């Protein structure tokens, strides 16, 4: 068991952003987290990363909890790729510096040049600033930065929804390659179900802060149990 | 844009002249070499003062003092203001409230009286002038930096840095501060203009740079008694202060325009 989430809740004022959520992720899984915007997906992701403290509940990576409750320690295991590549890179930091940072903090053996190669970017991009890169290239840098920590678990928060269709396909293929190459576990957050179908073997459906349906991807797609999931599927297909 | 180029060139020339003062100055600035109060001539470009010192030499050396006071005072103000503003904006909450109330208290004092009081209590020296001006002019910077941090800390790259495991220290200095530098530079140029004016005012009142050391401010003070007989004694340092301050404003405005677009 890579990750076990038990009864996590988080409210902002009166709004229950995450409401008693439990699920688990096995090593090697690729879990799709689906739901419309405002359903609490991103809040849940931030809790998993240790960026946000849950009001209630428990969260365990690799069966240990206490030693991993600090954000610093979680960051060694779980990383995130953000939705918007325009804003997720510091405009004043060269690509090389941005990749060097996690390597230094976590003292990993990763090399900037190798990371760039891994995500399909030329080595000399290390000397460029983010504004000299296209959206797809920036997203590759975002992926490389997350991988620099050598994490086991990667949260992909709508990683392709800000990109054009051709770039979406390229990034998805890259993610698929990286998963098998580096033996990663994914939590793929999306509202676009076709993307999930392409990449995920398990699905969680989130609605108003709760997980209302979960199961193997084929099952959820072929015979959804909840009306909400049916509507979600119908709206796309 | 034209104005800011003009300002930048003027400042550059002044700085070069100030640095090169020992080479350029025809006389020792404190040496009494001639009869007192002579008008500008080929021998004494800016004339001589009431004690018979060469005013061109004094102006060059005065530029060193005035510009140094401006730079050092502003550096102190920027350092304090940036640090407190950054802490305030980044952490928010109680710390923010405390720092901002402190800023309010400091701003509530009319700064020129505060400076005068402190200067009267201390022995007047150039260093005290720099420090006192710096310690009483950081509040605007603190507010500005706090505002920048309030917006920048919500940026996604800050959250990304946090997810990577960056410390608060690193996020503040490596991720947020570099993105807030443009308005800080603008504040620094405008602040330097203010510091030079304050130094002039202090020296004019006899509480700043002490004779025989020349600064543009105390040259103005020396000229008071001779306004009718020797107007050049007042006009020359007066114009230099005016031109320097205006140039700094122009440069500051120019940087603000460039970084806006």
From TrEMBL, chain A:
Alphabetically, the GO molecular function entries are: ATP binding; ATP hydrolysis activity
The record's section on InterPro entries has: AAA+_ATPase, ABC_transp_ATP-bind, ABC_transporter-like_ATP-bd, ABC_transporter-like_CS, P-loop_NTPase
UniProt keyword annotation of Transmembrane present? no
The record's section on PROSITE patterns has:
ABC_TRANSPORTER_1, ABC_TRANSPORTER_2
Gene3D superfamilies reported for this sequence = P-loop containing nucleotide triphosphate hydrolases (3.40.50.300)
Limits of the ABC transporter domain: 3-233
GO biological processes = transmembrane transport
Spell out the CDD domains in the cross-references. Answer: ABC_NikE_OppD_transporters
Q: Does the keyword Calcium apply?
A: no
Per UniProt, which keywords does this protein have?
ATP-binding, Nucleotide-binding, Transport
PANTHER family named among the record's database cross-references: TRANSPORT ATP-BINDING PROTEIN (PTHR43776)
Know the name of this protein? ABC transporter domain-containing protein
């Amino acid at each position: 068991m890579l990750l076990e989430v038990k009864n996590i809740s988080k409210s902002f004022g009166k709004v229950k952003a995450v409401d008693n959520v439990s699920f688990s992720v096995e090593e090697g899984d690729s879990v799709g987290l689906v739901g419309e915007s405002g359903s609490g997906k991103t809040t849940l992701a931030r809790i998993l990363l240790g960026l946000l403290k849950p009001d209630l509940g428990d969260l365990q990576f690799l069966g240990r909890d206490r030693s991993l409750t600090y954000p610093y320690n979680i960051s060694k295991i779980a990383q995130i790729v953000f939705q918007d590549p325009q804003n997720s890179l510091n405009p004043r930091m060269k690509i090389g510096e941005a990749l060097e940072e996690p390597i230094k903090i976590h003292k990993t053996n990763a090399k900037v040049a190798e990371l760039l190669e891994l995500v399909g970017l030329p080595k000399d991009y290390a000397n460029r600033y983010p504004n000299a890169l296209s959206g797809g290239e920036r997203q590759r840098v975002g992926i490389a930065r997350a991988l620099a920590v050598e994490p086991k678990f990667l949260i992909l928060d709508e990683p392709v929804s800000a990109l054009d269709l051709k770039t979406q396909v390229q990034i998805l293929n890259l993610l698929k390659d990286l998963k098998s190459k580096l033996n990663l576990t994914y939590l793929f957050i999306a509202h676009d179900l076709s993307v999930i179908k392409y990449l995920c073997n398990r699905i969680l459906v989130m609605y108003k802060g709760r997980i209302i349906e979960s199961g193997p991807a084929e099952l959820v797609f072929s015979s959804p149990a909840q009306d909400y999931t049916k509507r979600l599927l119908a709206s796309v297909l | 844009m034209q104005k800011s180029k003009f300002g930048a060139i003027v400042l550059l020339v002044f700085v070069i002249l100030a640095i090169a003062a020992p080479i350029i100055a025809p006389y020792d600035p404190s040496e009494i070499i001639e009869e007192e109060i002579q008008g500008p001539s080929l021998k004494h470009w800016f004339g001589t003062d009431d004690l018979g010192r060469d005013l061109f030499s004094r102006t060059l050396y005065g530029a060193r003092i005035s510009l140094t006071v401006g730079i050092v005072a502003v550096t102190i103000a920027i350092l304090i203001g940036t640090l407190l503003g950054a802490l305030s904006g980044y952490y928010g909450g109680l710390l923010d409230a405390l720092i901002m109330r402190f800023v309010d208290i400091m701003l509530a004092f009319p700064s020129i009286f505060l400076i005068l009081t402190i200067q009267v209590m201390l022995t007047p020296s150039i260093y005290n002038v720099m420090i006192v001006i710096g310690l009483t002019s950081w509040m605007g910077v603190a507010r500005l930096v706090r505002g920048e941090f309030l917006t920048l800390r919500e940026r996604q790259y800050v959250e990304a840095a946090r997810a990577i495991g960056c410390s608060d220290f690193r996020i503040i200095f490596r991720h947020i501060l570099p993105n807030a530098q443009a308005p800080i530079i603008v504040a620094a140029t405008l602040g330097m203009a203010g510091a030079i004016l304050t130094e002039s005012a202090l020296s004019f009142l006899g509480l700043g740079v002490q004779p025989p050391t020349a600064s543009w401010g105390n040259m103005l003070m020396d000229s008071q008694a001779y306004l009718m007989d020797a107007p050049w004694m007042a006009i020359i340092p007066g114009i230099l202060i005016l031109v320097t301050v205006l140039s700094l404003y122009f440069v500051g405005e120019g940087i603000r325009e460039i970084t806006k677009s």
